[in-house]
Amino acid sequence: MKVLITGANGFIAKNLQVTLNKMEHIQVLNYSRENSIEELENFIKETDFIFHLAGVNRPQDVSEFYEGNSNLTKTIVELIKKYNKKIPILFSSSSQVGNDNDYAKSKEEAERIIENYSKENDVNCFIYRLPNVFGKWSKPNYNTVIATWCHNITRDIDIQVNNEDTELTLVYIGDVIHAFISHLYVGQFKEIHHEIKTVYKKTLGEIKELLYMFKDSRQNLLIPNIAKGFERVLYATYLSFLPTDKFSYRLSGHEDARGTFYEILKTLDSGQLGISTTKPGITRGNHYHNTKNEKFLVIKGKALIELRDIYSKEIIQYNVDGNDLEIVEMIPGYTHNITNTGDEEMVLLIWANENYNPKAPDTNFVEV
């Protein structure tokens, strides 16, 4: 199947291309404003499906709205008819349709052209009135406020918020692409208008707060819940805007005669992760927790981990080795310590179920 994408250099098109290029039996034809109408005609001669994503939303002259939106759509339909083809068209329209501005009017005209083409030729067409789309490869100061803010915040540039209570309707680029591609192999559709299923409604204040939490997490190591929902896709978008010299960041740790300890990250509800090093022959720990619990994993070197119920004299021992990964649980009410029994520096990963609170550390030392 040959698939034509108009507006091939745009944000949505770039994300669509990488997905289509991974699909078997799909050949992508790309049309952008750098191409001629003759090239467009040649593409239409051989294409089987059109993703019509080209559009103008910030022209220097009002006439460009109609030239890039409705007129281009008309040209595409006329070329299809010229070769007596029935090519399905998926059109990326705008949620602004119905508003009294030239951008909305030009998009609405393009919709009518596609609707008439669909009815007159009995061919499936799909119109999506997209709200604010965000995600990787979006353009700051052009596509969406999220792109602008991600670009600025990752570069320590101030952002402007006129009203933090303003609510935006948002869709994520990944959900848009998934919806678009689902129409490649479909039967008859009664409806021509379609919507993205997953929609987020967020205020500017909520978005701003999350983006600055992402930025601050490099210093305080506290990362929001980014495993699902809006936070997940916003964080992916934020990371995509990091300058290449800011992909990494250094940790601040603690060092003494025994070795080092670094906190790696902290979560809102699943504790924290740290890493420590211990020199040969050194023992660390000899304390217990009442409620707090930890998991120890030696990833380099050899160690002896000892645990003892504070009301018992029995010592439970685990000899662990970084070449044979084994997690040992630190049980509440049990003293525990770890000794480097090897000849090299021992490296230990430590997960705790709660973030360290110096005012309530739940760490009780005992005499060795």
Describe the structure.
- The chain has 368 residues and is an alpha/beta fold.
- It has 3 domains: 2-130, NAD(P)-binding Rossmann-like Domain (Rossmann fold, 3-Layer(aba) Sandwich), CATH 3.40.50.720; 133-169 and 199-249, 3-Layer(aba) Sandwich (Rossmann fold); 253-365, Jelly Rolls (Sandwich), CATH 2.60.120.10.
- 29% of the residues lie in helices and 30% in strands.
- The strands form 4 sheets. Strands 10, 11, 12, 13, 15, 18 and 20 form a 7-stranded mixed sheet that branches. A 6-stranded parallel sheet has the order 2-1-3-4-5-8, with helices on both faces. Strands 17-16-19-14-21 form a 5-stranded antiparallel sheet, with no helix packed on it.
- α5 runs parallel beside α7 (204-220).
- The longest helix is centred in the first third of the chain and has 20 residues, at 63-82.
- 27% of the residues are buried.
- The mean pLDDT is 95.
Summary of the model, kept short:
Helices cover 29% and strands 30% of the residues. With 368 residues, the protein is of the alpha/beta class.
